[in-house]
Amino acid sequence: LQQIRDYVYAHTKEKNTLPVFRFDHDRQHWTYDHTRDAGWPVTGYLRVTLAQDAALVSPVAFWEAGKAPYLYMDAAYHTGAAKGCVYWKTSGKDFGGDQRMAFDIRGDGQFHRYRIPLKDAAAYRGYITRLKIVPAEGTPGSGDWVEIRSIALGN
Q1: Three-class SS of the chain
Q2: N vs C: which end of the chain shows fewer Cβ within 10 Å?
Q3: Cα–Cα dist 18/62, whole Å
Q4: 36: Cβ–Cβ under 8 A, 6 or more apart, which residues?
Q5: Buried-state track 29-59, b at ≥16 Cβ within 10 A, e below 16
Q6: In terms of Cα–Cα distance, which of 59, 66, 57 is closest to 127?
Q7: What are the pLDDT digits (tens) for 111-155?
């Protein structure tokens, strides 16, 4: 029995179990607070209206912070806003407080890959269960929006 276990462990590659969300055809179970998207069909990205307090909330997941030091978001911003923010939830704390990381955005309407160093936040430790992304902080302009192709966690 031990030989079988040794063989399996030696020949099994570690699977990537970190969350990866590609918005090719659907919302991937993400929900919205104080905003909406362009509706159906979803064709390659989410087109989300930017408004005060607008947020995208991930489905419940579970990962170790140390194995996912960065959040990657492929997005095209159509706004004059300068910053967005990522919040995370742990099993013991809700969103908010020091469980956040702000990031700079480029409102030029072109797709960019945002690499957000969650590892730089002192509170990004332990096991994470959910994300909330505020795509634009403050009060974006009327008619502003963001197109999001994917959101992923990784190295």
Answers
A1: CHHHHHHHHHHCCCCCCCCEEECCCCCCCCEEECCCECCCCCCCCEEEECCCCCEEECCCCCEEHHHCCEEEEEEEEECCCCEEEEEEEECCCCCECCEEEEEECCCCCCEEEEEEEHHHCCCCCCEEEEEEEECCCCCCCCCCEEEEEEEEEEC
A2: N
A3: 8
A4: 48, 49
A5: ebeeeebebeeeebeebbbbbbbeebbbbbe
A6: 66
A7: 999 999 999 999 999 999 999 999 999 888 889 999 999 999 999
Tokens at 20, concatenated: 């990866």
β-strand partners of 58: none
Q: Are 72 and 151 in contact (CB under 8 A)?
A: yes
User: Strands 145-154 and 20-22, how do they pair?
Assistant: antiparallel
pLDDT tens track for 6-37: 777 676 665 668 999 999 999 999 999 999 99
CA distance 136 to 62: 25
